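Below sits our specimen:

——
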Amino acid sequence: MLRKYVYKLSPTQIIVSAYFTAIVIITGLLMLPISVKPGVNLSLIDALFTAASAVSVTGLTTVSTADTFSTFGSFVLILAFQIGGIGVMTLGTFFWILFGAPIGLSQRRLIMIDQNRYNLSGLVQLMKLVLGMTLLFEAVGTLIFGLYFYFAGYYDTFYASFYYAVFHSISTYTNAGFDLFGNSLIDYSHDYFVQSVTMLLIILGAIGFPVLVEVREYLFGGHNRFRFSLYTKITTVTFLVLLVLGMLVIWITEDSRYFAEMSWYEKFFHSLFLSVTARSAGLTTVDVSELSVGSQFVTSILMFIGASPSSVGGGIRTTTLAVVILMIVTFARGRSEVRVFGRSIRQEDIIKSFVFFVTALMLVTGGTLVVHMLEDQRFELVHVIFEVCSAFGTCGLSVGITSGLSYSSKIILVLLMYIGRIGMMPFLSSFTSGKSTADVHYPKEKIIIG
Protein backbone atom coordinates (compact mmCIF):
# COMPACT_ATOMS: atom_id res chain seq x y z
CA MET A 1 0.00 0.00 0.00
CA LEU A 2 2.73 2.44 1.00
CA ARG A 3 4.89 1.45 -1.97
CA LYS A 4 1.99 2.00 -4.35
CA TYR A 5 1.44 5.47 -2.86
CA VAL A 6 5.15 6.33 -3.18
CA TYR A 7 5.20 5.29 -6.83
CA LYS A 8 2.43 7.83 -7.54
CA LEU A 9 4.56 10.68 -6.19
CA SER A 10 6.89 12.74 -8.33
CA PRO A 11 10.60 12.81 -7.34
CA THR A 12 10.14 16.31 -5.92
CA GLN A 13 7.18 15.19 -3.81
CA ILE A 14 9.23 12.25 -2.52
CA ILE A 15 12.01 14.61 -1.38
CA VAL A 16 9.48 16.95 0.28
CA SER A 17 7.87 13.96 1.99
CA ALA A 18 11.25 12.62 3.11
CA TYR A 19 12.07 15.79 5.04
CA PHE A 20 8.57 15.83 6.54
CA THR A 21 9.03 12.20 7.62
CA ALA A 22 12.42 13.05 9.14
CA ILE A 23 10.80 15.82 11.21
CA VAL A 24 8.11 13.42 12.45
CA ILE A 25 10.68 10.77 13.42
CA ILE A 26 12.95 13.26 15.22
CA THR A 27 9.89 14.64 17.03
CA GLY A 28 9.07 11.14 18.26
CA LEU A 29 12.65 10.52 19.40
CA LEU A 30 12.78 13.82 21.29
CA MET A 31 9.54 12.93 23.08
CA LEU A 32 11.14 9.82 24.57
CA PRO A 33 11.90 10.13 28.31
CA ILE A 34 15.55 9.21 27.63
CA SER A 35 15.94 12.29 25.40
CA VAL A 36 15.28 14.84 28.13
CA LYS A 37 16.91 15.50 31.47
CA PRO A 38 15.25 14.24 34.68
CA GLY A 39 12.34 16.38 35.75
CA VAL A 40 11.98 18.08 32.36
CA ASN A 41 8.62 17.95 30.60
CA LEU A 42 8.81 18.56 26.86
CA SER A 43 5.46 19.34 25.22
CA LEU A 44 4.54 18.06 21.76
CA ILE A 45 4.61 21.52 20.18
CA ASP A 46 8.08 22.22 21.63
CA ALA A 47 9.34 18.82 20.45
CA LEU A 48 7.90 19.45 16.97
CA PHE A 49 9.37 22.94 16.83
CA THR A 50 12.80 21.69 17.95
CA ALA A 51 12.72 18.79 15.47
CA ALA A 52 11.72 21.08 12.59
CA SER A 53 14.42 23.55 13.58
CA ALA A 54 17.06 20.79 13.79
CA VAL A 55 16.15 19.05 10.51
CA SER A 56 15.95 22.39 8.73
CA VAL A 57 19.27 23.31 10.44
CA THR A 58 17.76 26.57 11.65
CA GLY A 59 18.51 26.88 15.36
CA LEU A 60 15.39 28.66 16.55
CA THR A 61 14.27 27.07 19.82
CA THR A 62 11.37 27.39 22.21
CA VAL A 63 13.29 25.63 24.99
CA SER A 64 16.87 25.76 26.22
CA THR A 65 18.85 23.00 24.49
CA ALA A 66 21.38 22.82 27.32
CA ASP A 67 18.77 22.63 30.09
CA THR A 68 16.27 20.37 28.31
CA PHE A 69 18.01 17.56 26.47
CA SER A 70 20.09 14.67 27.81
CA THR A 71 23.16 13.23 26.15
CA PHE A 72 20.92 10.91 24.12
CA GLY A 73 18.74 13.85 23.12
CA SER A 74 21.82 15.80 22.06
CA PHE A 75 22.88 12.98 19.72
CA VAL A 76 19.34 12.83 18.30
CA LEU A 77 19.77 16.51 17.44
CA ILE A 78 23.17 15.78 15.88
CA LEU A 79 21.50 13.15 13.68
CA ALA A 80 18.91 15.73 12.67
CA PHE A 81 21.67 18.24 11.82
CA GLN A 82 23.30 15.73 9.49
CA ILE A 83 20.00 14.85 7.80
CA GLY A 84 19.15 18.48 7.21
CA GLY A 85 22.66 19.75 6.58
CA ILE A 86 23.99 17.43 3.91
CA GLY A 87 20.57 16.19 2.78
CA VAL A 88 18.55 13.02 3.03
CA MET A 89 19.75 11.75 -0.33
CA THR A 90 23.42 12.18 0.59
CA LEU A 91 22.87 9.95 3.61
CA GLY A 92 20.75 7.64 1.46
CA THR A 93 23.60 7.35 -1.06
CA PHE A 94 25.96 6.47 1.78
CA PHE A 95 23.75 3.59 2.94
CA TRP A 96 23.16 2.38 -0.63
CA ILE A 97 26.91 2.23 -1.15
CA LEU A 98 27.51 0.73 2.31
CA PHE A 99 25.13 -2.18 1.67
CA GLY A 100 26.19 -2.60 -1.95
CA ALA A 101 22.80 -1.66 -3.39
CA PRO A 102 22.77 -0.39 -6.99
CA ILE A 103 22.00 3.30 -7.47
CA GLY A 104 19.59 3.44 -10.36
CA LEU A 105 18.08 6.22 -12.43
CA SER A 106 15.24 6.90 -9.99
CA GLN A 107 17.67 7.32 -7.08
CA ARG A 108 19.87 9.61 -9.16
CA ARG A 109 16.87 11.80 -9.99
CA LEU A 110 16.13 12.12 -6.26
CA ILE A 111 19.74 13.08 -5.59
CA MET A 112 19.61 15.66 -8.39
CA ILE A 113 16.52 17.33 -6.90
CA ASP A 114 17.78 17.18 -3.31
CA GLN A 115 21.09 18.80 -4.28
CA ASN A 116 19.48 21.29 -6.70
CA ARG A 117 21.46 20.05 -9.69
CA TYR A 118 20.65 20.28 -13.40
CA ASN A 119 21.84 16.92 -14.74
CA LEU A 120 22.31 13.31 -13.65
CA SER A 121 25.97 12.92 -14.53
CA GLY A 122 28.50 12.60 -11.71
CA LEU A 123 25.91 12.69 -8.93
CA VAL A 124 27.12 9.62 -7.05
CA GLN A 125 30.71 10.86 -7.10
CA LEU A 126 29.47 14.26 -5.91
CA MET A 127 27.63 12.65 -2.99
CA LYS A 128 30.77 10.76 -2.01
CA LEU A 129 32.77 14.00 -2.04
CA VAL A 130 30.09 15.89 -0.09
CA LEU A 131 29.91 13.19 2.57
CA GLY A 132 33.70 12.86 2.73
CA MET A 133 34.29 16.60 3.06
CA THR A 134 31.53 16.89 5.65
CA LEU A 135 32.99 14.17 7.86
CA LEU A 136 36.50 15.58 7.40
CA PHE A 137 35.58 19.17 8.32
CA GLU A 138 33.45 18.05 11.26
CA ALA A 139 36.18 15.71 12.55
CA VAL A 140 38.90 18.36 12.28
CA GLY A 141 36.61 20.90 13.94
CA THR A 142 35.87 18.47 16.77
CA LEU A 143 39.57 17.78 17.31
CA ILE A 144 40.49 21.47 17.34
CA PHE A 145 37.65 22.50 19.65
CA GLY A 146 38.07 19.48 21.92
CA LEU A 147 41.77 20.03 22.54
CA TYR A 148 41.32 23.79 22.88
CA PHE A 149 38.40 23.54 25.32
CA TYR A 150 40.45 21.19 27.52
CA PHE A 151 43.84 22.94 27.47
CA ALA A 152 42.30 26.43 27.69
CA GLY A 153 40.58 25.32 30.88
CA TYR A 154 36.96 25.61 29.74
CA TYR A 155 36.25 22.03 30.87
CA ASP A 156 37.98 19.77 33.37
CA THR A 157 37.87 16.47 31.48
CA PHE A 158 38.54 15.27 27.97
CA TYR A 159 35.04 13.73 27.86
CA ALA A 160 33.32 17.04 28.60
CA SER A 161 35.62 18.94 26.24
CA PHE A 162 35.00 16.61 23.31
CA TYR A 163 31.29 16.21 24.10
CA TYR A 164 30.80 19.95 23.66
CA ALA A 165 33.30 20.01 20.78
CA VAL A 166 31.54 17.38 18.66
CA PHE A 167 28.14 19.04 19.15
CA HIS A 168 29.49 22.52 18.42
CA SER A 169 31.53 21.39 15.40
CA ILE A 170 28.63 19.59 13.71
CA SER A 171 26.13 22.30 14.63
CA THR A 172 28.49 24.93 13.21
CA TYR A 173 29.41 23.21 9.94
CA THR A 174 25.79 22.28 9.18
CA ASN A 175 24.82 25.85 10.16
CA ALA A 176 22.30 24.38 12.60
CA GLY A 177 22.87 27.10 15.20
CA PHE A 178 22.09 24.95 18.25
CA ASP A 179 24.41 25.15 21.25
CA LEU A 180 24.97 23.41 24.58
CA PHE A 181 26.65 26.44 26.16
CA GLY A 182 23.33 27.96 27.27
CA ASN A 183 23.79 31.40 25.69
CA SER A 184 25.18 30.63 22.23
CA LEU A 185 28.78 31.96 22.02
CA ILE A 186 28.39 34.98 24.28
CA ASP A 187 30.74 33.37 26.83
CA TYR A 188 33.32 33.22 24.01
CA SER A 189 32.81 36.83 22.91
CA HIS A 190 36.47 37.59 23.77
CA ASP A 191 37.89 34.26 22.61
CA TYR A 192 38.86 35.08 19.06
CA PHE A 193 40.30 31.65 18.36
CA VAL A 194 36.94 29.95 18.98
CA GLN A 195 35.23 32.65 16.94
CA SER A 196 37.66 32.32 14.03
CA VAL A 197 37.37 28.52 13.77
CA THR A 198 33.60 28.78 14.13
CA MET A 199 33.36 31.34 11.32
CA LEU A 200 35.54 29.17 9.07
CA LEU A 201 33.27 26.15 9.60
CA ILE A 202 30.17 28.28 8.99
CA ILE A 203 31.56 29.55 5.68
CA LEU A 204 32.63 26.07 4.57
CA GLY A 205 29.08 24.85 5.14
CA ALA A 206 27.33 27.85 3.61
CA ILE A 207 29.48 28.51 0.53
CA GLY A 208 28.01 25.51 -1.32
CA PHE A 209 29.19 21.96 -1.93
CA PRO A 210 29.85 22.48 -5.68
CA VAL A 211 32.20 25.36 -4.81
CA LEU A 212 34.15 23.15 -2.39
CA VAL A 213 34.34 20.39 -5.00
CA GLU A 214 35.71 22.81 -7.62
CA VAL A 215 38.25 24.27 -5.17
CA ARG A 216 39.37 20.74 -4.36
CA GLU A 217 39.70 19.96 -8.07
CA TYR A 218 41.65 23.20 -8.60
CA LEU A 219 44.08 22.45 -5.75
CA PHE A 220 44.54 18.70 -6.15
CA GLY A 221 43.24 17.83 -9.62
CA GLY A 222 46.53 18.32 -11.42
CA HIS A 223 45.04 20.51 -14.15
CA ASN A 224 47.28 22.90 -16.03
CA ARG A 225 44.46 25.32 -16.85
CA PHE A 226 41.45 24.83 -14.58
CA ARG A 227 38.42 27.05 -15.17
CA PHE A 228 35.93 27.67 -12.39
CA SER A 229 32.27 27.46 -13.39
CA LEU A 230 30.06 30.53 -13.67
CA TYR A 231 28.12 29.26 -10.67
CA THR A 232 31.23 29.23 -8.48
CA LYS A 233 32.29 32.70 -9.60
CA ILE A 234 28.88 34.28 -9.01
CA THR A 235 28.36 32.45 -5.72
CA THR A 236 31.76 33.30 -4.27
CA VAL A 237 31.72 36.96 -5.29
CA THR A 238 28.16 37.50 -4.05
CA PHE A 239 28.89 35.66 -0.79
CA LEU A 240 31.98 37.76 -0.07
CA VAL A 241 30.36 41.07 -1.06
CA LEU A 242 27.40 40.42 1.23
CA LEU A 243 29.72 39.37 4.04
CA VAL A 244 31.83 42.53 3.82
CA LEU A 245 28.87 44.88 3.29
CA GLY A 246 26.98 43.30 6.18
CA MET A 247 29.98 43.67 8.48
CA LEU A 248 30.54 47.33 7.53
CA VAL A 249 26.87 48.33 7.88
CA ILE A 250 26.55 46.63 11.29
CA TRP A 251 29.83 48.19 12.46
CA ILE A 252 28.79 51.70 11.35
CA THR A 253 25.27 51.34 12.77
CA GLU A 254 26.40 50.10 16.20
CA ASP A 255 29.65 52.08 16.46
CA SER A 256 28.14 54.71 18.78
CA ARG A 257 25.55 52.39 20.31
CA TYR A 258 26.14 48.75 21.24
CA PHE A 259 29.86 48.94 20.32
CA ALA A 260 30.43 52.35 21.92
CA GLU A 261 32.69 51.16 24.76
CA MET A 262 34.54 48.51 22.74
CA SER A 263 38.00 48.57 21.16
CA TRP A 264 38.31 48.52 17.37
CA TYR A 265 39.18 44.81 17.21
CA GLU A 266 36.17 43.91 19.38
CA LYS A 267 33.95 45.89 17.01
CA PHE A 268 35.58 44.16 14.05
CA PHE A 269 35.05 40.62 15.37
CA HIS A 270 31.49 41.24 16.57
CA SER A 271 30.51 42.82 13.24
CA LEU A 272 32.25 40.14 11.19
CA PHE A 273 30.84 37.27 13.23
CA LEU A 274 27.30 38.65 13.02
CA SER A 275 27.60 39.10 9.26
CA VAL A 276 28.93 35.55 8.85
CA THR A 277 26.40 33.90 11.14
CA ALA A 278 23.48 35.78 9.56
CA ARG A 279 24.05 33.80 6.35
CA SER A 280 22.46 30.73 7.95
CA ALA A 281 24.29 29.72 11.13
CA GLY A 282 22.44 31.43 13.99
CA LEU A 283 25.23 31.40 16.57
CA THR A 284 26.01 34.77 18.11
CA THR A 285 28.57 36.52 20.28
CA VAL A 286 26.28 39.47 21.12
CA ASP A 287 22.78 39.89 22.51
CA VAL A 288 20.90 40.45 19.27
CA SER A 289 17.90 41.91 21.10
CA GLU A 290 20.10 44.80 22.30
CA LEU A 291 21.10 45.83 18.79
CA SER A 292 19.52 48.87 17.17
CA VAL A 293 16.53 48.58 14.86
CA GLY A 294 18.81 49.34 11.90
CA SER A 295 21.15 46.44 12.65
CA GLN A 296 18.25 44.07 13.27
CA PHE A 297 16.70 45.04 9.94
CA VAL A 298 20.00 44.62 8.05
CA THR A 299 20.50 41.24 9.72
CA SER A 300 16.96 40.27 8.67
CA ILE A 301 17.86 41.06 5.05
CA LEU A 302 21.01 38.94 5.27
CA MET A 303 19.02 36.04 6.73
CA PHE A 304 16.39 36.40 4.00
CA ILE A 305 19.14 36.12 1.36
CA GLY A 306 20.75 33.20 3.15
CA ALA A 307 23.56 30.98 1.94
CA SER A 308 24.55 29.53 -1.44
CA PRO A 309 22.58 26.93 -3.43
CA SER A 310 23.50 23.28 -2.76
CA SER A 311 24.74 24.19 0.71
CA VAL A 312 23.53 23.59 4.25
CA GLY A 313 21.82 27.00 4.36
CA GLY A 314 18.42 28.38 3.42
CA GLY A 315 17.01 31.68 2.20
CA ILE A 316 16.55 32.76 -1.41
CA ARG A 317 20.26 31.92 -1.95
CA THR A 318 23.08 34.12 -3.20
CA THR A 319 22.73 33.28 -6.89
CA THR A 320 19.06 34.27 -6.89
CA LEU A 321 19.94 37.71 -5.57
CA ALA A 322 22.87 38.07 -7.97
CA VAL A 323 20.80 37.21 -11.04
CA VAL A 324 17.97 39.55 -10.00
CA ILE A 325 20.40 42.45 -9.53
CA LEU A 326 22.21 41.68 -12.79
CA MET A 327 18.90 41.60 -14.67
CA ILE A 328 17.85 44.95 -13.19
CA VAL A 329 21.17 46.52 -14.19
CA THR A 330 20.92 44.98 -17.66
CA PHE A 331 17.38 46.29 -18.14
CA ALA A 332 18.38 49.76 -16.90
CA ARG A 333 21.12 49.82 -19.54
CA GLY A 334 18.62 48.97 -22.29
CA ARG A 335 19.94 45.46 -22.90
CA SER A 336 18.16 42.12 -22.93
CA GLU A 337 21.01 39.62 -22.47
CA VAL A 338 22.45 39.27 -18.97
CA ARG A 339 26.23 38.91 -19.19
CA VAL A 340 28.75 38.32 -16.42
CA PHE A 341 32.30 36.90 -16.33
CA GLY A 342 32.28 36.46 -20.11
CA ARG A 343 29.15 34.30 -20.09
CA SER A 344 25.42 34.83 -20.70
CA ILE A 345 22.84 33.65 -18.18
CA ARG A 346 20.01 31.48 -19.48
CA GLN A 347 16.57 33.06 -19.72
CA GLU A 348 15.15 30.12 -17.78
CA ASP A 349 17.46 30.86 -14.83
CA ILE A 350 16.50 34.54 -14.89
CA ILE A 351 12.80 33.66 -14.73
CA LYS A 352 13.44 31.21 -11.90
CA SER A 353 15.35 33.82 -9.93
CA PHE A 354 12.51 36.34 -10.13
CA VAL A 355 9.90 33.69 -9.33
CA PHE A 356 11.86 32.48 -6.31
CA PHE A 357 12.57 36.01 -5.10
CA VAL A 358 8.95 37.19 -5.37
CA THR A 359 7.55 33.97 -3.87
CA ALA A 360 9.94 34.16 -0.94
CA LEU A 361 9.08 37.81 -0.40
CA MET A 362 5.37 36.95 -0.33
CA LEU A 363 5.96 34.08 2.11
CA VAL A 364 7.98 36.24 4.49
CA THR A 365 5.59 39.20 4.21
CA GLY A 366 2.56 36.98 4.70
CA GLY A 367 4.18 35.11 7.58
CA THR A 368 5.09 38.39 9.27
CA LEU A 369 1.56 39.80 8.97
CA VAL A 370 -0.08 36.58 10.21
CA VAL A 371 2.25 36.21 13.21
CA HIS A 372 1.88 39.91 14.06
CA MET A 373 -1.91 39.57 14.02
CA LEU A 374 -1.93 36.26 15.92
CA GLU A 375 0.18 37.79 18.67
CA ASP A 376 -2.20 40.77 18.84
CA GLN A 377 0.76 43.13 18.34
CA ARG A 378 2.39 42.00 21.61
CA PHE A 379 5.80 42.23 19.94
CA GLU A 380 7.38 44.98 17.89
CA LEU A 381 6.99 44.54 14.13
CA VAL A 382 10.76 44.60 13.52
CA HIS A 383 11.14 41.73 16.01
CA VAL A 384 8.49 39.69 14.22
CA ILE A 385 10.19 40.39 10.88
CA PHE A 386 13.48 39.26 12.42
CA GLU A 387 12.07 35.93 13.67
CA VAL A 388 10.24 35.21 10.41
CA CYS A 389 13.33 35.94 8.29
CA SER A 390 15.40 33.81 10.66
CA ALA A 391 12.98 30.91 10.20
CA PHE A 392 12.74 31.20 6.41
CA GLY A 393 16.49 31.69 6.02
CA THR A 394 17.07 28.70 8.35
CA CYS A 395 19.38 30.94 10.37
CA GLY A 396 18.25 30.73 13.99
CA LEU A 397 19.20 34.15 15.29
CA SER A 398 16.53 35.41 17.65
CA VAL A 399 15.61 38.54 19.56
CA GLY A 400 14.15 36.30 22.26
CA ILE A 401 10.44 36.21 21.41
CA THR A 402 10.20 32.67 19.95
CA SER A 403 9.44 30.91 23.24
CA GLY A 404 6.69 33.44 23.99
CA LEU A 405 4.81 32.93 20.73
CA SER A 406 1.42 31.24 20.60
CA TYR A 407 0.98 27.71 19.24
CA SER A 408 -0.36 29.06 15.94
CA SER A 409 2.62 31.38 15.46
CA LYS A 410 5.03 28.55 16.22
CA ILE A 411 3.37 26.43 13.53
CA ILE A 412 3.82 29.31 11.05
CA LEU A 413 7.55 29.39 11.86
CA VAL A 414 7.76 25.59 11.56
CA LEU A 415 6.28 25.80 8.04
CA LEU A 416 8.69 28.58 7.08
CA MET A 417 11.68 26.59 8.39
CA TYR A 418 10.48 23.56 6.44
CA ILE A 419 10.07 25.54 3.21
CA GLY A 420 13.43 27.23 3.79
CA ARG A 421 15.15 23.86 4.08
CA ILE A 422 13.62 22.08 1.10
CA GLY A 423 14.17 25.16 -1.09
CA MET A 424 11.94 27.21 -3.35
CA MET A 425 12.22 24.90 -6.37
CA PRO A 426 11.00 21.73 -4.61
CA PHE A 427 8.39 23.77 -2.72
CA LEU A 428 6.84 25.18 -5.91
CA SER A 429 7.31 21.94 -7.87
CA SER A 430 5.57 19.89 -5.17
CA PHE A 431 2.23 21.40 -6.23
CA THR A 432 2.51 20.07 -9.78
CA SER A 433 1.00 16.74 -10.75
CA GLY A 434 4.00 15.68 -12.80
CA LYS A 435 1.79 14.99 -15.82
CA SER A 436 2.78 16.54 -19.11
CA THR A 437 0.46 19.19 -20.51
CA ALA A 438 -0.45 19.80 -24.11
CA ASP A 439 1.97 22.13 -25.87
CA VAL A 440 -0.62 24.77 -26.79
CA HIS A 441 0.38 28.34 -27.61
CA TYR A 442 -2.02 31.26 -27.40
CA PRO A 443 -1.77 34.54 -29.31
CA LYS A 444 0.50 37.05 -27.59
CA GLU A 445 -0.72 40.49 -26.60
CA LYS A 446 1.09 43.40 -24.97
CA ILE A 447 -0.03 44.84 -21.64
CA ILE A 448 0.96 48.05 -19.89
CA ILE A 449 3.71 47.47 -17.29
CA GLY A 450 4.97 49.93 -14.67
User: Anything to note?
Assistant: The first helix runs from residue 2 to 8. The chain has 19 helices and two strands. The first strand starts at residue 339 and ends at 340. The mean pLDDT is 88.
